[in-house]
Amino acid sequence: MEHVVEIQRLTKKFGDFTAVDNISLSVEKGEIFGFLGPNGAGKTTTIKMLCGIMMPTSGEGRVSGYDIISEQERIKNVIGYMSQRFSLYEDLTVMENLEFFGSIYGLEGFRLKEGIDRVLDMAGIGERKNELVKRLPGGIKQRLALGGAILHNPPILFLDEPTSGVDPLMRRNFWEIIYRFSEEGRTIFVTTHYMDEAEHCDRIALIIAGEIIALDSPDALKKNFNHVVYSISTDNFLDVFEKIRHLDFIVEAAIFGTDIHIMCEENIPVKKKLSSFFREHGVSSYALNRIMPSLEDVFVGNARRFSR
Amino acid sequence: MKGFIRIPVLISMIKKEFAQVLRDNRMRGILFGPPIIMIIVFGYAVNMDVNSTDLAVIDEDKSSMSRGLIEKFTGSGYFTLYSYLHSEKELASQMDNGNVETFIHIKRGLSKNIKSGRTSEIQVIIDGTDSNRGAVISAYVNEIMQSYFIDKYLNRVKTVILLRSSGVAAGTPGVASGFVMSKGVRVVDRAYFNPTLLSKNYFLPGIIGFIVSLITIMLTAMSIVKERESGTMEQIIVSPIQPIEFILGKTIPFAMIGFIDMFVVTIITILWFDVSFKGNMLFLFFAAFFYILCTLAVGIYISTISRTQQQAMMSFFLFFIPAILFSGFAFPIYAMPETIQIITYVNPLMYFIIIIRGVFLKGVGFMVLWKELLVLVIIGITLLYLSARRLSRRME
Lengths: 308, 396
Prior knowledge:
Number of domains of chain A: 2
Helix content of chain B: 55-70%
CATH topology of the largest domain in chain A: Rossmann fold
Strand order of the largest sheet of chain A: 6-7-8-3-9-10
Oligomer: heterodimer
CATH superfamily of the largest domain in chain A: P-loop containing nucleotide triphosphate hydrolases
Number of helices of chain A: 11
């Protein structure tokens, strides 16, 4: 497989603070690679280093074969970047924005027109092309921003939290576009803190405090998770939740609807321990089932392990 | 690719800047409104000329000679008779209130003394709170006294001019100049280049420099900072646009606007305010080009030290006020302490104002002003190079 993005021991420090700590990974051509982590985990910093707009403190990396330290200018031509903040001109029209961004990527004449038509079509905003961007609703702006990033038809896309602040319907729509890009053979590197979005990715890296704590496909991450997750159904779920949440063999407890999900380390006789606990505390009617961990469980479990 | 400026990129940058500036109410407001309002307001308001000053008189002589003198004052157009007073005590309160600026005390026996060959004294007291104005009034008084007594009894009149509240100033108590000269000799002052000595002739050309600086610095700094504020800068940086293309795209439109503004206010100065233009317009705009290089550089520099438009505004004033104060625009540089004068040597506005005034009032050009022009070229290119480098480092 062809590695489109490759980084080794990449580190970025701001003074004493280490934003990205010695991370290594590689992304294959056509892959949707997710970067999942809380705010401040170092996702944006990593993307900025890959896009050639921030110098790493140490380590090395290549994007499309170009060195991220010495060949930043070449990288800029083969990538599309969509930043966390909406970054088109609000005071220009859709067309003016696309014409401007197209031209700074060196598009002219027919190629510019073709690129713009493709974007208008993709974002479905042909009929609003002469409106000022600030008048457009959030979801359309988001698609337009994505369009701005792919005007020059880049083989690699870096999307930094592209769906933050977008309603669920628009998010789904947005991901359909991303799938289409992937089918066209584009590589997509996307950061998010939405678990459901991470499920859409071919592979995901969990990043916390600048370190990658797990990296695999969503299914493999769940399968290889070294914790087990149980669902407890009971009448008085709020009371029960309060009682069990601090038990020493439970790593994490959370309420899901009217059920309680608990996460425990492997090789612990959870059923036995729980039933004796419930007997002591007079909880008689309950159902305990082992369930498949969600990505969130995986994330939380790994984060716990990491912070210990 | 590096180092090769792509003209289509430049054109689309410039197009975009104009679209944004013309669409943004705040920016569009800066473009032509303030320059035109400023030149008009300054043209009428910044006036150091004394056209009318209120006069109070104690006439103890009550002769045809004393009345003639008072008429000479009021007929000059510079003095308006406010009231006749009876004692110097009244004067003090009138002057403290600001009702009266000039006071003439004609002692009893003036006419008799002079006619019989003795000398006599006329006391003039001028409000010296504004020392410049006091000096101007004092000069008028001298002029009127001189012309009134010229043929008759010049060497017998002693005018004592006192400037009140400014201590010893221009009109040091003593004998006014015209009266110590021997009979028949009269000094006639004539100011070259600004014969009527109107302050608008002096100030309005200076204001042109002021306006060009304001517009070009503000627009450049604001438009760059705005990109940073709104996050579009990031999208620019991640694109293959070269810093030099970005910088040219950010400066050419504002240089053009600066030129248009300068042209408009120059025309208003000449046609509306009748300030004579003696020199070569082409030379003036040629020099303005290099001055605008300096202001664009300052604008870029401000953009590199400001994160928000408010900060840019603050930085702008921190630069602009000293630049005006030390430019010779209002306060003559020769009167500043030498250490401060050194600061003015690096102030591009000082050179530009010398050039504008030279071209406007003296009609001189390259032959006389080449030194100032050369300094502007050097400062302009150096500053622009340094701030462009600073901005492009921040972009990479």
